[in-house]
Write a structure and sequence with these properties.
Strand order of the largest sheet of chain B: 3-4-6-5-7-8-9-10
Number of helices of chain B: 17
Largest interface: A-B, 51 and 47 residues
Structural class of chain B: alpha/beta
CATH topology of chain A: TBP-like
Pfam families (chain B): Abhydrolase_8 (PF06259)
CATH superfamily of the largest domain in chain B: Alpha/Beta hydrolase fold, catalytic domain
Oligomer: heterodimer
Helix content of chain A: 10-25%
CATH class of the largest domain in chain B: Alpha Beta
Strand content of chain B: 5-15%
Organism (chain B): Glycomyces luteolus
Strand content of chain A: 25-35%
GO molecular function, one term (chain B): hydrolase activity
Number of strands of chain A: 7
Largest sheet of chain A: 7 strands, mixed
Number of domains of chain B: 3
CATH class of chain A: Alpha Beta
Strand order of the largest sheet of chain A: 3-4-5-6-2-1-7
Protein name (chain B): Alpha/beta hydrolase
Number of domains of chain A: 1
Distance between the termini of chain B: 40 Å
Shape of chain A: globular
Number of strands of chain B: 10
Order of helices and strands of chain B: HHHEEHHHHHHHHHEEEHEHEHEEHEH
Largest sheet of chain B: 8 strands, mixed
Structural class of chain A: alpha+beta
Distance between the termini of chain A: 52 Å
Number of helices of chain A: 3
Keywords (chain B): Coiled coil, Hydrolase
Radius of gyration of chain A: 17 Å
CATH topology of the largest domain in chain B: Rossmann fold
Chain lengths: ~190, ~600
């Protein structure tokens, strides 16, 4: 069985640059309303049609609340802003699509960085910013450190969905919380 | 085996079968009125304790009550569930295939093809007239249109010569189309035979197992009545066992009706005392299966732990250089592997406190449901992210070559990704994704994935699984079946041979699906979707292995775009990678009914 190309990061190493990429995107977004939730997930890394043990793909998803997902700011303006921002950083835009649906217009903007990390801004039912690692060597969960979320998600809160990596609890102390936001925006919207 | 011919099916009056089912249903309702009268007018009326008070009167009341109970049970189990439902199901199945025949047979005739061969293996061949027309350079207009040539209007003009030089294409095109119709016809008749055989099995099983009646009143009544009551209790267990072992002849819909007909205490008793008769059974609701399967999983892990301890102890008394030791060590390693695999599955779907875990995904977070597992062969695991019984959209993923229990984490991750994508695309709907590793997947690309036997082995189980989802789910649920790689071959075989319950079928990176035409899948062709990225080597699979590539032009159905990964990477499995957001978006749209 062939392995995927030698990755730049291990899984444990990948979270920090991926989170930094998300944080960088947030800084470019004007009148940013805050994300509702952050989710850390994995997908199988494959080669030759076969899932390769020892490798994984990390995906970090930041989700806007449903009301925010529907605003022109988030659905249209942010696409334009991110396209310009990511292009200015030298990232390769390899998907920039618009899909008309009966009740809404979906958009999809994808950029890749030279280190293999991809950024996917997907305007669909929800609007999300996704950061993907590409294939990385899998790490034991004990080796993975909690990286505080960006964009207003409260570290260790209900919507910081990284719990399966930290069964003993998420270390909230000392975490950076730039927006000092509540667990949920639902009450204030 | 079904003796149904295509002519029988074409001419069959499905309405008459359905009317017969209605008659049985009406009969059940009528008869229930009689048992109700027995209870209210006899037991609680004329023969009530108020009028007759004696041991004999009590016995008589009890005996009449038991007879009424038995009659009602039989009406429900036999007249309603077995007979009426069988008639409705077979009428629906025949009518669906009959409608396909009504579309297909005129096409065969219009194109001057002929249906030949035995009912088990129909051929669609070129007629003698069509052969002659091609050979005499007078091909029919439809064939000229398909080959992109003008129909010759005289001898040896330019068009005629062009046709002549395209003679091979004319034949090839005509034979190719006949082959597609043949696939379609064989699939229609295969599903019709399957429905016929299943109906026959359901009815014959009923005939072979007549039920006991309450004992007659008389001197031996007291001796026999306790046995009878115990027998009634054991009957439910016997039915559950027969259903679980596949000898009841009941369809998933009938199993569901049987389950719903049990009392709450009977259902609970089965889940607690015989989880092995509940967990794996299609047609039993997801919550109950999940509870039973989690118990079975605990039990299996404990059992394997005991076996491992015993084997380790036995090893200590053996000569490490002996053959016996080698064999025992190998068995020990197998047991440990199975235990670790099951423990890994358990860890994934269970919280530390033993409660069912929730998948990490967008709100609302979805629980994992365990619908099946096993350590045989390369292992089995059927895990749903979200409850398919309550979901608006259910997407069932069938994975491909080398899928096994050991790597189940990655497979569940993929299902979780698909559920998450669907939820993000359709926030107003509830979305569940099932990872169905309910078959022994090929372990190798060469030679195993080149063989059909793995798909044929999975076909009936996938049919029953999808029909079970239909039986336990909501009436208007949008069901999608998504296959990846060899998983598409599994779906194709099941759909064309046995029939599946699906609104949409999606083939991702298919080596072929056992048929050359989307028409043979028994699903509206508009809802058949295929994708293969331009660098995926799977498109080089020869047609003789598993049939034509469903993403090819002639297959029918729809195709959608998937982006490639790096040019120098193997692009067969990049469909859920960070290089194919286009494909993931489309998959989510299909699964949520937005395409």
């Amino acid at each position: 069985m062939d392995n995927p190309p030698e990755p730049r990061y291990t899984q444990a190493e990948a979270y920090a640059p991926m989170e930094a990429a998300a944080a960088d995107a947030v800084t470019a977004l004007p009148d940013f309303p805050g994300f509702k939730e952050r989710i850390w997930t994995e997908m199988p890394a494959t080669s030759g049609g076969i899932d390769v043990p020892g490798f994984t793909i990390v995906e970090i998803t930041y989700v806007f609340s449903l009301p925010d997902s529907g605003t022109p700011l988030v659905r249209e303006t942010y696409v334009d802003v991110l396209r310009e921002h990511w292009s200015s950083l030298g990232y390769t835009i390899f998907r920039d699509a618009v899909k008309e649906k009966p009740d809404r217009t979906d958009r999809s903007l994808v950029a890749t960085r030279p280190d293999g990390i991809s950024l996917w801004y997907w305007v669909s039912g929800y609007t999300v910013l996704r950061v993907q690692s590409g294939p990385v060597t899998a790490s034991d969960h004990e080796a993975i450190e909690h990286v505080p979320p960006t964009g207003g998600v409260r570290p260790g809160g209900r919507f910081d969905k990284v719990g399966k990596y930290f069964p003993d609890g998420i270390p909230a102390d000392g975490a950076v919380d730039p927006f000092d936001s509540p667990d949920s925006y639902e009450d204030v919207l | 085996m079904s003796e149904l011919t295509w002519e029988h099916l074409r001419d069959l009056d499905c309405g008459a079968i359905r009317t017969l089912g209605d008659t049985w249903k009406a009969y059940v309702e009528q008869q229930l009125a009689h048992t109700e009268r027995l209870r209210t007018e006899v037991i609680e009326g004329h023969l009530s304790a108020e009028h007759f008070e004696s041991d004999t009167a009590t016995q008589v009341r009890e005996q009449i009550g038991m007879t009424a109970d038995r009659y009602e049970d039989d009406l429900s189990d036999y007249a309603s569930t077995r007979i009426a439902t069988t008639l409705f199901e077979v009428a629906d199945a025949f009518e669906k295939e009959q409608n396909e025949l009504k579309e297909l047979v005129p096409l065969i005739e219009q194109h001057d093809f002929e249906i030949e061969g035995p009912r088990s293996e129909y051929d669609v061949n070129l007629s003698g007239d069509l052969h002659q027309a091609i050979l005499t350079l007078n091909p029919p207009q439809w064939l000229c249109d398909m080959c992109g040539v003008q129909k010759p209007d005289g001898f040896w003009d330019l068009d005629t010569i062009k046709v002549l030089f395209n003679g091979v294409d004319l034949y090839g095109t005509a034979i190719g189309l006949a082959g597609q119709y043949q696939d379609w016809l064989r699939a229609v008749m295969s599903r019709a035979h399957d429905a016929d055989d299943e109906a026959a099995a359901a009815l014959s099983e009923m005939r072979e197992n007549p039920t006991e009646l309450p004992p007659r009143l008389g001197a031996t009544y007291d001796d026999l009545v306790d046995d009878y009551k115990e027998g009634v209790t054991e009957e439910v267990a016997g039915e559950a066992k027969a259903i679980a072992e596949g000898t009841s002849g009941m369809s998933p819909e009938q199993v569901n009706q049987w389950w719903e007909g049990l009392s709450e205490s009977e259902r609970q008793a089965l889940i607690e005392e015989h989880p092995e008769w509940v967990g794996p059974v299609d047609g039993i609701p997801t919550e109950s299966r999940d509870t039973a399967n989690r118990t079975l999983l605990d039990n299996d892990i404990d059992r394997l732990g005991t076996q491992i301890a015993a084997k380790e102890q036995a090893l200590q008394g053996m000569d490490p250089e002996s053959e016996e030791y080698e064999q025992a060590k190998e068995e020990l390693d197998g047991l440990k592997g199975d235990r670790d695999d099951l423990a890994n599955l358990q860890d994934r779907i269970t919280n530390d406190d033993g409660t069912p875990a929730l998948a990490e995904g967008p709100e609302p977070k979805q629980p994992y449901y365990l619908l099946g597992f096993g350590t045989q062969d390369s292992g089995r695991a059927i895990v749903s992210v979200g409850n398919p019984d309550t979901a608006d959209n259910v997407n069932t993923l069938v994975p491909g070559t080398t899928s096994n229990l050991t790597d189940v984490d990655g497979l569940i991750n993929r299902a979780e990704t698909m559920q998450s994508d669907a939820q993000l695309a359709a926030p107003g709907a509830s979305n569940a994704t099932v990872m169905w590793l309910g078959y022994d997947a090929p372990d190798t690309i060469v030679p195993e994935a080149m063989q059909e036997r793995w798909a044929d082995g999975a076909s009936n189980d996938l049919e029953r699984f999808t029909k079970g989802l239909d039986a336990t789910g909501q009436p208007n649920t949008n069901h999608t079946l998504t296959g990846h790689s060899y998983g598409t071959t599994v779906i194709g075989h099941a759909a064309s041979q046995d029939g599946v319950n699906a609104d949409n079928i999606v083939f991702v990176a298919s080596p072929g699906v056992g048929t050359d035409t989307a028409s043979a899948l028994g699903v509206d062709e508009d809802n058949v979707w295929s994708t293969t990225n331009s660098l995926d080597p799977i498109q080089l699979s020869p047609d003789f292995l598993h049939g034509a590539n469903p993403a090819g032009e002639d297959f029918g159905g729809n195709t959608f775009h998937s982006d490639t990964g790096a040019w120098n990477a193997n692009n067969h499995s990049t469909y859920w990678d960070d290089t194919n957001m286009a494909g993931r978006e489309t998959l989510a749209d299909i699964a949520t009914g937005q395409r």
